[in-house]
Amino acid sequence: LKESQTMEAQKVKDLQLDQLEKQVGSTTRENAKLNAMVETLKERLETVTKERDSAKAESEEQIGIEMRENAKLSALIETLKERLEAVTEERDEVTEKYKSYTVLDV
């Protein structure tokens, strides 16, 4: 009877050990899947971060280009304003001279 109980207890222990080994195997496989997913996410994060940084650098470069272009255009506008004022003054002088000639003709 004792030998039978010992054998039965051993079977129960063997069965429990077998179940634990299956659980460990299952858990190990799940961990491997999760680790692979984590690695994929890390790689994707790295890629997205590089893309963002690249886009930011391009944007900053574009802003710099636009600022330089705006400065050039502002300088050109000022030059044109000055030229317009000079031409307007010349026109006014010529108009005044013309008026004085027409007054003399009358």
| Overall pLDDT score | 92
Profile the largest sheet: none
**Separation, N- and C-terminal Cα atoms:** 152 Å
Classify the secondary structure makeup into a structural class.
Answer: mainly alpha
Radius of gyration: 45 Å
Overall outline: rod-shaped
Strand fraction: under 5%
Number of strands: 0
State the helicity in percent bands.
over 70%
Indicate the low-confidence ranges by residue numbers: none
Q: How many alpha or pi helices?
A: 1
Write the element-wise H/E pattern from the N-terminal end onward.
Answer: H
Structure description:
- It is built from 1 helix and no strands.
- The N and C termini lie far apart (152 Å).
- It has 106 residues and is an all-alpha fold.
- The radius of gyration is 45 Å and the shape is rod-shaped.
- Helices cover 98% and strands 0% of the residues.
